Description:
By secondary structure, the protein is an all-alpha fold. About 95% of the residues lie in helices and about 0% in strands. It contains one helix and no strands. The protein has one helix at about 5-40. It starts with a helix and ends with a helix.
Amino acid sequence: MNHKEFDTELLKELKTLKSMWAKTLDKVEATAKKTEKSKQLDC
Length: 43
């Protein structure tokens, strides 16, 4: 495997990880918003 092939594979992996992180963060934010709303209702 030459360097160029390796770099391409690495970039693919990074992009996959980034999109996975983005999805996870979206879920976390959505959950946080729901929690905030329910807290406001309790008051």
